[in-house]
Amino acid sequence: MIEKRRSTRVPIHLTLSICDLYKQDVSGIHQLDAPIEVTDISEHGVGFTSECILPLDYYFNASVNFQNDTSYTATLQIVRCNIIDGSHYSYGGAFINPSPELLENIRDHVSLYSE
Predict the structure, then answer these.
(1) Is 70 helix (H, G, I), strand (E, B) or coil?
(2) Three-state SS for 30?
(3) Chain-centre distance of CA 49, in angstroms?
(4) Residue that wins the pLDDT comparison between 9 and 76
(5) Distance (Å, whole) CA 93 – CA 84
């Protein structure tokens, strides 16, 4: 299988909730309350699973919390969706303009897997 990602993804366990999805034209889906489980992370995005069907090319704000209790708010765009089974879906989310501090923490996390 050919790797298509721009950067290495490594496992991480985070649980997030999506309350609001929106598009750049300000349309949105509100009060969604979609629990998601983040499975991996890279400098460019996250992989996650959910029981909800989420639309491609929509955005959401997420709080990314690392084990060192540091938390960052980031905007993610849903760029990929695959069906896992009848009630679970796998997604790819791309970071939109992540902060330098968030990227540094992600690099630190990735380096733990390359040592």
Answers:
(1) coil
(2) coil
(3) 9
(4) 76
(5) 16
